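user: can you give me the structure for this one chain? C-alpha cells are fine.
assistant: on it. calling the predictor now.
[tool input]
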Amino acid sequence: MRLENKVAIVTGGARGIGQAIAELFAKEGAKVIIWDLLDVGSDTAAAIGESGGVAEFTKLSVTDQEAIDAEVARIVEKYGRVDILINNAGITRDKSLAKMTVDDWDAVIDVNLKSVFLCTKAVLPHMREQNYGRIVSASSTTGLWGNFGQTNYAAAKAGIIGMTKTWALELGKYGITVNAIAPGFTLTDMTKAMPDAIIEGAKQQIPMRMIAEPIDIAYGYLYLSSDEARFVTGSTLCISGGTVRH
C-alpha cells in the first residue's frame, strides 16, 4: 500500500473531493483524520472503518487557530507523528466585483487561504522534527485563469500557488514536499445542483468531453502524498481534462 502507516489530516474531508481523498488514503493504508464542520464527516469516517480502513472525524473550523493547534497536538500524542496534510477545505461566495461585499471577501479568504497558512504552521514543527512531510493544498483552475464572479475565490486559489512555491523553497531541507492541485470542473454535490445546461456547457469546454469525478482528483493527491513523488515539490498539478487557456 502506498501510504501504509502514514498519518494524514484531510481538511474538508466530509464530502466531495475531500471525502474521496480520505477514502482513497485509508484504502492505501493511511490513518486518516478528517477535519470538517459538517457532521456528515462522522459518517464518512465510520464508512471507512467498516471498509477496513482507519479514520476518525473531528468537528473543527479551519479558521480557529487554537482548535487547530490543540487538535494537531492530540494527533501527535495519539499516533506519534503527522505525515501528510491535505489542505482541501473551501467555500464559495460568488458575486461580481460590483456586488461582492467585504464579508464575502473575508469569508472566502479566511477559509480558502488563511486556513492553509494556519494548518500548515501547526503541523510544521512535527514534520520538521521527523524530517518528513507531505503538504498538498487545493488550488483551482480559477487560481490559474480567473473566472467571472469569483474575485475572492481566484485570489485565494492563486495565493495558494504562491505559498506552495515559497514553502517548497523553505522546507525542502527538512524532507518536506509542498505541492498544490488545481482541479477543473468536478462533479460534487455543489456542481450537481447546477442546471443541466450549465453542466453540459462546461463539458463542451473540456477536450475530453467529460467532467471529473472526485476520485479523479483524489488520485492526484495520492501521488503527491506518496513516496513516488519524493522529488516533486513546488508544483501545481492541473487536473482539468486538458482544458487550457492562454
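assistant: here you go. Strands lie at 7-11, 31-36, 54-59, 84-87, 133-138, 176-183, 236-239. The chain has one domain: 7-186+215-238.
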